[in-house]
Design a protein that fits this description.
This protein is α+β, with helices and mostly antiparallel strands and 371 residues long. The protein contains six helices and 26 strands. The protein is elongated, with a radius of gyration of 26 Å.
Length: 371
């Protein structure tokens, strides 16, 4: 069938640009985006096999007024984006035939070759799926845990965050075996869940939907979200997340309240050459130095509680946690030089960090795993 449709240049360009972020970069169906029409609504979709997206709410009209739909057509996202970006008119016409899409804008006509085979992409739900409301609170929890997700572990279950919903309490946990982020909130839910959302999916959920309240559908294999303009699907990680609850200390022998701004500044300065640093905190001052003794920083610190704390840590773990904190103060929970440290804002936002074992002479350096 040969048809010509007219649509908004800006809307279809934005849709193709967004869908292009989810295409396969190599192999079968590389750079493929799929256009289709149904009842005068144009949709653009793509998938990288882990994620899938469908961009909608794009109205079109056909020069043949008896046609309001057309079958899926696959084209190269890079080429189509370039063509749409130079479109000079408010609206564009797309001439669809068996081999090409011809983009007509003003006096220009540019052909983009179609793929022979169209990638199969499904964003359908089923009756067995559970509902999960992903709104500002849950998006914020996922965002705060994001940094603690393992970046290069061979353990697939650590490449995502554990989302637990039970008894109207929602918990997000993530670990790279050296640090463990745990964020919890009392959020009402009609369903209990225990799933692992991959890191790539968390980044998309936070970036794409932001503060919007979306009712997602979840089963053992995928999570699907739908808004007015976008449908999104991500495959869940099939695996058993570590029993992180055993790692969280039940109590801390000493608790230190620290000014976030001062503590951050000291960490950044102390680790300018070496991320492995030694920290001493007592009731009068905070001292930091790196393992190579290149940097040494001391600041006055007044506390009404007697404190005598000494440990070694990779400063990156602390700094990444501090980036997620908006409050002016944090708490540092301490039990022993070689036991897990607890950074917290309150009972709902904690990070457990493994210290680096060290001798007074800075001899052999090693660190334990938290999971």
């Amino acid at each position: 069938m040969k048809i010509t449709i007219n649509t908004s240049a800006a809307k279809i360009k934005n849709a193709v640009v967004l869908a292009s972020k989810f295409v396969n970069k190599a192999g079968d169906y590389s750079n493929q985006v799929i256009l289709s029409g149904n009842e005068n609504e144009l949709t653009v979709k793509a998938s990288n096999n882990m994620e899938a997206i469908l961009v909608k709410d794009i109205h079109f009209t056909c020069t043949d007024m008896t046609i309001d739909s057309f079958k899926e057509i696959a084209v190269d996202s890079v080429k189509l984006t370039k063509v749409l970006q130079i479109a000079k008119s408010e609206n564009v016409s797309l001439k669809l035939d068996e081999n090409f899409i011809t983009v007509i804008s003003g006096s220009s006509k540019i052909k983009v070759e179609r793929f022979v085979e169209v990638q199969k992409i499904s964003l359908n739900t089923n009756d067995d799926m559970k509902e999960l409301v992903i709104g500002q609170e849950l998006s914020g929890m996922l965002d705060k845990a994001y940094h603690a997700i393992d970046k290069d572990s061979s353990r697939i279950e650590l490449s995502g965050a554990n989302l637990i919903v039970k008894n109207n309490k929602t918990i997000v946990a993530a670990t790279d075996t050296k640090s463990l982020a745990v964020i919890s909130k009392n959020i009402k839910s009609n369903n209990d869940l225990n799933i692992i959302i991959p890191k790539i999916g968390i980044k998309t959920i936070v970036g794409l939907f932001g503060k919007a309240s979306i009712v997602a559908k979840v089963d053992d294999f995928k999570l699907l979200m739908e808004s007015k303009n976008v449908n999104y699907s991500v495959k869940l990680i099939n695996g058993k997340f570590p029993e992180w609850q055993k790692i969280v200390p039940k109590e801390e022998q000493q608790t230190v309240v620290l000014n976030k701004k001062l503590f951050t500044s000291m960490l950044e300065e102390a680790s300018i050459f070496n991320n492995e640093i030694i920290i001493k905190i007592n009731s009068n001052k905070i001292e930091m130095k790196d393992f190579e003794d290149n940097t040494s920083i001391t600041e006055e610190y007044e506390s009404n509680i007697h404190t005598d704390v000494k440990f070694a840590i990779n400063s990156k773990m602390f700094l990444e946690f501090l980036k997620t904190v908006s409050q002016d103060e944090i708490k540092l929970g301490f039990n022993d030089t070689n036991l897990p440290l607890v950074l917290s804002v309150d009972e709902e936002h904690k990070e457990i960090c493994m210290p680096i074992a060290f001798s007074e002479e800075i001899g052999d350096i090693n660190s334990e795993n938290v999971a």
